[in-house]
Amino acid sequence: MTRPIALLSTLVALACAAPASAATSQITFFEAPTALQDASTRGQTLDEIKALGSDGIRVLVNWNRLAPDPTSSERPAIVASDPAAYGDRWAPYDAIVDGARSRGLKVLLTLTGGAPHWATASGKDAITKPDRDEFQAFVTAVGSRYADRVDTWSIWNEPNQPQFLAPQFVGGKPYSPRLYRRLYLAAKRGLKASGNADDTVLAAETSPRGNPRIVAPLAFLRGFLCLDSKYRKASTCGKIDADGWAHHPYTTSRGPYFRSSKKDDVTIGTLSRLTRALDRAARAGAIRKSMPLYLTEFGIQSYPDRISGVPLSTQADYRAISELIAYKNRRVKAFSQYLMNDSDPEPKGGSKYSGFESGLRTFAGKKKPAYEGFRLPLTIDRYARGKVRIWGLVRPADARTKVTILYANRGSSKWRTLTRLSTDSRGYFSNRRRAISTRRYRVEWTDGSGTTYRGPVTKTRRLP
Q1: CATH architecture of the domain with range 381-459
Q2: Which CATH number does the domain 27-375 belong to among 3.20.20.80, 3.10.20.600, 3.40.50.2300, 3.90.45.10?
Q3: How many CB atoms are located within 10 Å of the residue 82 CB?
Q4: What's the rounded Cα separation, in Å, for the pair 166 and 178?
Q5: pTM (two decimals)
Q6: DSSP state at residue 84
Q7: What is the mean pLDDT of residues 305-309?
Q8: What are the boundaries of each domain within the chain?
Q9: DSSP sequence for 408-449
Q10: With bands split at pLDDT 50, 70 and 90, how would you rate the model's confidence at 284?
Q11: Exposed, middle or buried, 289 (CB in 10 Å: 0-12/13-18/19+)?
């Protein structure tokens, strides 16, 4: 994906009860592809994801990782809809899925490219006009393999990005939405054939911003759903059957409330653009009404990347604020964290910081403030009449619990108790207190075993 930064999931409200508009059933997915594919780090990473309170994991199932002879232009003699055709290439995916399920973690599988070369129009790359019938057969095989272990699927990672699907434009007009529509419908047929017709299937998985090479997410939405610029549907196009709309609402180093001047872009601070577009599409008969949002990939870029990243303490703050934004939007059913560890800052054959520095740990494995900030997100924002609003979450909590809000005055290293608050059954808490601008805050929580955790230091911010 292009290199933004960003966010995570969930928020309560003002006084102790959550507002009617908040999505209190929101869940959190975690994505750690490198750590989970590596057998030596898989178990520890799954244990951490569970201990940090995530509800599930997102896993990309890459077609060309499983397919035989993926770089050949000639199709191998296989029955591509039969799981046996893929031999022992299932092993890492089996281990990830089974390891997650044994820990009580939900699994979202994103069925995606690259495609094997023999299944593309060019026969020479992994992205140019993948064959929909071949993709349907592949999806049938994956669905058959995991029919009794997975019930949530999404189709194709960031199809509005040129490194994942091509061409993006033809004659200056978006073309990838048309390609994606064929692939999505083929995937639906494949899941039905494999006995997964009643599972949850998500569409889109779009990246947040467009440019002359990338189709902007709302332009992609209109093209995929056969809508014109006024959201009128072509009579020749049928309704798309999807259970949710998946999106990656990364922001920039300007923070969660950044608003792109391009109206077809959708970052975490402009989710309402996407919900309005979905509602207009529903009124046109292109999709179901009140389509839920699944924010399936998100993170805040941090230092050492000084171009797209922010200081480590700011990463934790921005992540918590992003979670608050997602929680307040009642259409958001899932948020996410991408990654556990930062990407290699100087990858072989790649440019410096060409990956993501959105992890909760550095590439070397050192915990950032965002690590405990994921477990215990906290926001303090200046409110009316000299008050601050406290909001937070104890992510590992599975029942009502107590948290302590601590404060320290400017120039002091001594932390004092401000108040003790009760959470709701999901771990959310909120409160209002007198505003004192010189104070710093953090949250402290003790779990059932007696282990005490402290969140990162947070300061008062003026939120919109």
Answers
A1: Sandwich (2.60)
A2: 3.20.20.80
A3: 12
A4: 11
A5: 0.94
A6: G
A7: 94
A8: 27-375, 381-459
A9: E-TT----EEEEEEE--TTSEEEEEEE--TT-EEEEEEE-TT
A10: very high
A11: exposed
